[in-house]
Amino acid sequence: MTTQQPDPLLFTPLTLRDVTLKNRIAISPMQQYAAGPDGKVVDYHTVHYGRMAMGGAGLVFTEALCITPEGRLTYSDLGAWHDDFIEPLARLADNVRALGAVPGAQILHAGRKASVQRPWQGYMPLTEQDIADRGEAPWQTVAPSPLPANPGWPTPQALTASGIAEIVAAHGDAARRCRQAGFEVLDIHGAHGYLIHSFLSPISNQRTDGYGGDRLGRMRLALEIAAAVRDEWPDERPLFFRLSCIDDEPGGWTMADTIILARELGRLGVDVIDCSSRGLGQRTTPVVVAREQGFQVPFAEDVRRATDLKTMTVGLIMDAAFAEGVLQGGRADLIAIGREALFNPQWPLQASLALMGDEAYERFWRPSDAWWLEKRARSLAAAKDTALV
Ligand SMILES: Cc1cc2nc3c(=O)[nH]c(=O)nc-3n(C[C@H](O)[C@H](O)[C@H](O)COP(=O)(O)O)c2cc1C
Q1: pTM for the full model?
Q2: Alpha-carbon distances, residue 21 vs 90, 104, 128, 213, 387 (angstroms)
Q3: How far is the CA of 307 from the centre of ligand 1 (A)?
Q4: Which of 100, 175, 239, 273 is the most buried (most CB within 10 A)?
């Protein structure tokens, strides 16, 4: 008699508060640069995120929804800064749900990294030339201190206390709109050198008031935003917080800082730390940096071991067995897939085959695909047996 194998952890449901994910794969937030200057959802977004849901992930995050127009990176970012956005966002969320995934949203203010060109246009601050080329005027960016994001970049305006209060409130309003649109998971973007991260790091935050100075002062904006968002985000729905766990810069934010912040966020009702890294200093995206699969897993593991929070890990995860090993090793609770899902939106379904064999067709694939593909697999296996291939 054969003993029944337990399901791989990657395909074991995970319940966070009252929301159950059918598996532990999330599509990481990824900007699509497909919105018009009004920041609203268009058909492209509905199709793109629907395609991600059809690929089998348990949780599909939207790209960053900007909480104010000034908080956008580019003129093609999606927004959540007005109640007019609720209805089109609801269509996107409903479509993801109808296709079998839990819809998640991410909210962002880009701070001193706002007002830039799209990546393929240079990813540099907008200038007069962008007005001439595309009618895209730069706007004034804001930050904790008047320190440019990179050498030669425009100097951001240091936020006043009332400016900070407005930004905290705008995060709360955006969370309410995401709730009203029917998203079931929310991720606050506190990473990659954007506004929240720039308050956390001593490199970018040189304030001397209550929002700067020691670690507690630098954490204050993140904590106020988490509290304002949790107020608007229903108790039954999980809240994630994305952190750059390390700056990887001399004198920057460290893993020890991350653990202290994560504990405080947990007290405020954050459930999952979405563990990323870096992004504060010189932008590394346009250059190729050698990185191995799962290079950020140690951050998720450290947070998970040092706190009672769950963690999501991300970063060049492409192999199903590797992802399963991360979960089995207790190193993270969720695996987020980014660029691999752009390359292959069916990655989660293919991972189910890789880990469970043909049984996965019946359990996870749409019957109309499974019926054909299983036959195809058997034909190919038979051909192999008769040395046809
Ligand atoms: C096209 C693109 C857009 C991205 N946009 C966002 C975003 O809106 N919010 C965010 O937190 N991270 C964003 N990221 C980072 C991804 O969520 C992810 O952390 C990163 O790509 C590393 O994971 P990967 O190696 O699986 O791609 C983006 C990445 C890509 C490739």
Answers
A1: 0.97
A2: 19, 11, 47, 40, 42
A3: 25
A4: 273
